[in-house]
Amino acid sequence: MTPFDEAFHASAERHERAFIVCVIVMMALLTVATMFYVVHDFGLVTTTQSFHSDPTAAEREVAAADTGRVVKTGPNSYAVHITGKAWRWTPGVIHVPEGAEVTFYVTSSDVLHGFEIQGTPVNLTAVPGVVGTVKYTFHRTGVFRIICNEYCGMVHHAMIGQVIVDARAAE
Ligand code: CUA
Prior knowledge:
171 residues, Cupredoxin, cytochrome-c oxidase activity, Immunoglobulin-like, elongated, alpha+beta, transmembrane helix, 29% helix, binds dinuclear copper ion, 5-stranded mixed sheet
């Protein structure tokens, strides 16, 4: 090897090492950014979801009585029974306080609707005769739109509700 070859080789190795370091740093940044996004915007791990295909008579009664109301079930937890019907959600506007853990019981009284709360991982299908359950904790105040993401006819696109998360009054 000539001195030139050696110098070239050493410089190539330096560049290669620098390149590898860059890639590792980029991967680390990407991982951190992804975790941050998932945890902060989507409230990871607070969502549980299940379907109950054969509610008992008692459960039906409770659901019927509570439809449209936000029911307080604990110090910071709430339950809401929501029915989708072409082309609206009932209740259409839901108020909960900041930090509330809300369990949504979702069903449909006609066709399939898609119950999705934008900006959250809440997304389940509203099925006639079936009660779907999904739980979510609203950590920040603001208006979250409930949309229908399952085509259900002419006015499907306007089947929009709201979850309004209110700031807690100073205590
Ligand atoms: Cu309801 Cu689309």
